[in-house]
Specification:
There is one protein chain. By secondary structure, the protein is α/β, with parallel strands linked by helices. It has one domain: TIM Barrel, CATH 3.20.20. Helices cover 42% and strands 18% of the residues. It is built from 11 helices and 13 strands. Strands 3, 4, 5, 12 and 13 form a 5-stranded parallel sheet that branches. A 4-stranded mixed sheet has the order 6-7-11-8. The protein has a two-stranded antiparallel ribbon with strand order 1-2. Helix 8 packs parallel to helix 10.
Length: 308
């Protein structure tokens, strides 16, 4: 039985226990790489009332980026996960159909790419249900996954997502190569300290800004970010994460977040091809959809086979 630190009912893996933090997760490939795409297109631009120039930048994703990505994935036989706002899904049905025809997972990402930290709870529930129903209408089944737009969540968001029946959520950063169960009901106060809620059935697929194309490549003057990084810099970051995970986190999951309007530019597509080559060269690395990996991981944790 593994040793764990327990603080007010919260268990963390103990780095000093047998195998360390990065002990093996059994019955899973050596490393799974998940290529995930936030197919925002013009959804948030419509909500904000963006200018024609900004809308055209977003339209590049559905017009050029997504077809390029799907062609690359098909040529390599790689399944992936697409987080698609409801507006994108319904406004561009040809793009939605192309994703499904390629055997990729369709998951939820808001409707107009709303910031859930600013959405009232009742409206939040309506958006979540509307998105889930939109996916069900084109796939025949409820979606397994949710990713919050902007990776932004309000105090009630996780409970709302769990109550809607999602298998997993992908907006948090408390781990890197291991999924974990989402806690519900955490409370933090400068006067009363921190109290952690109980783990739920909702699985978290952790993400990282370093593994997201957007902050590397897209300028944001209002945030003091010039963007427009050289692809070689981003490739170095992503491949070093890949190699570290392959060596130190057997059975783990490396999740890459991309946006068709960003990664779809030619020089960045070339970088993505090189990253795929690097992953494919490592023994035991597979590419898969998040719903499949999470289902396998969940089955392992329920049966007690995984120390995670």
């Amino acid at each position: 039985m593994s040793t764990a630190n327990v603080v007010r009912g919260v268990a963390w893996w103990n780095p000093g226990s047998a195998g360390g933090y990065d002990g093996p997760m059994t019955d899973l490939p050596r490393l799974t790489v998940a290529l995930t795409f936030d197919h925002d297109s013009i959804s948030d631009g419509v909500r904000r009332g963006d200018s024609p120039v900004k809308l055209s930048h977003a339209e590049f994703g559905v017009r050029v980026g997504a077809p390029r990505i799907l062609e690359l994935l098909a040529s390599r036989g790689i399944p992936s996960t697409w987080f698609v706002p409801g507006h994108t899904l319904t406004t561009f049905p040809d793009s939605t159909n192309a994703i499904l025809a390629g055997g990729h997972e369709l998951a939820c990402h808001g409707w107009f790419h709303e910031d859930f930290a600013e959405v009232p709870r009742d409206e939040e529930r309506e958006i979540v249900e509307r998105c889930a129903e939109a996916v069900r209408s084109v796939t025949g089944s409820r979606p397994a996954g949710w990713r919050a737009p902007y990776w932004s969540l309000g105090t009630s968001s996780l409970a709302t997502i769990a109550a809607a029946g999602f298998l997993y959520e992908s907006s948090l950063m408390a781990d890197d190569y291991r999924p974990y169960r989402v806690r519900l009901g955490d409370r933090h106060s400068v006067t009363e300290g921190s109290r952690f809620g109980a783990e739920s059935e909702l699985v978290e697929v952790p993400i990282s800004w370093a593994l997201d194309d957007w902050p590397h490549f897209e300028p944001a003057a209002e945030r003091g970010r010039d963007g427009l990084s050289a692809p070689s810099k981003v490739l170095e970051i992503w491949t070093e994460e890949l190699r570290y995970a392959h060596t130190h986190a057997p059975g783990g999951l490396l999740t890459i977040t991309m946006h068709p309007e960003c990664i779809g530019r030619g020089h960045r597509m070339a970088m993505l091809e090189r990253f795929i080559d690097a992953a494919s060269s490592l023994d035991g690395v597979v590419f898969d959809r998040l719903d499949r990996y999470v289902a396998a991981w969940s089955a392992g944790t329920r049966s007690g086979r995984s120390p995670a």
